[in-house]
Amino acid sequence: MSSAGAVDPVDARTAQLATNLAAVLQRIDLACVAAGRDPSSVRLLPVTKFFPVEDVRALYRLGRREFGESREQEATAKVADLRVPSSDGGLDAVRWHMIGRMQRNKAKVIARWAHTVHSVDSERLATALDTGSRAAIDAGIRVEPVEVMLQVSLDDDPSRGGVAPADVARLADHVARSPGLRLSGLMAIPPLGAESDAAFAKLATWHTRLLVEHPEARELSAGMSTDMESAIEHGSTCVRVGTALMGARPITSA
């Protein structure tokens, strides 16, 4: 409490996040039970893009250790902020995920902080990320390759990113040969207005095909606030949740 009995806004925000987090985790557990899956087989990735670093710290205090960002400049600033020693710990305790579309000229910077990149959809992007990762390893900035998920297009809209399903195998081979990268699975976003069950069923089929040649690529990043239950039913191992956990965005994406 602050003076005059007013509620501390930091405490109030942490309480709000705690309530939202409990609700999201319950949704994941119930969806796993309905799908006949072990709840531990699905990870929650809080999507903290557009939210302040104080929210990341609050979620850290609530037990979260992985966070998803989609804009390089914003994420890089948060990473730098959390390098500063505090009672919450620093960068070493956090795994950052790049979930948004990446530009090749940002790959070097992103490779310095990203544990996992969910949005690799071309060989040129993979090569740039591999180069950045190897440079970061050589400089002692990171010790492990960047984990890579291939973003698969579930529609024909190039503005939303994603490799065509027919090209997944070739891109997977390219990533698997890259010493600075580690192929970990697939990611996809259902087309706008699409029926999520059908979209995730297709994704599950492509994932099964990928596992034949790349059994190490076990991760399936699928499902968000509105469709996580459907994604879990179709095998998602990582749900990327923003609104249901964080609330409405405090700023626009512009």
UniProtKB/TrEMBL annotation:
The keyword Transmembrane does not apply. It comes from the Bacteria. Pfam families: Ala_racemase_N. The modification N6-(pyridoxal phosphate)lysine is found at K49. Keywords: Pyridoxal phosphate. Residues 43-250 form the Alanine racemase N-terminal domain. The keyword Membrane does not apply. CDD domains: PLPDE_III_YBL036c_like. Pyridoxal 5'-phosphate (PLP)-binding protein, which is involved in PLP homeostasis. Belongs to the pyridoxal phosphate-binding protein YggS/PROSC family. PANTHER family: PROLINE SYNTHETASE CO-TRANSCRIBED BACTERIAL HOMOLOG PROTEIN (PTHR10146), PYRIDOXAL PHOSPHATE HOMEOSTASIS PROTEIN (PTHR10146:SF14). This is Pyridoxal phosphate homeostasis protein. It comes from Nocardia callitridis. The lineage of its organism: Bacteria, Bacillati, Actinomycetota, Actinomycetes, Mycobacteriales.
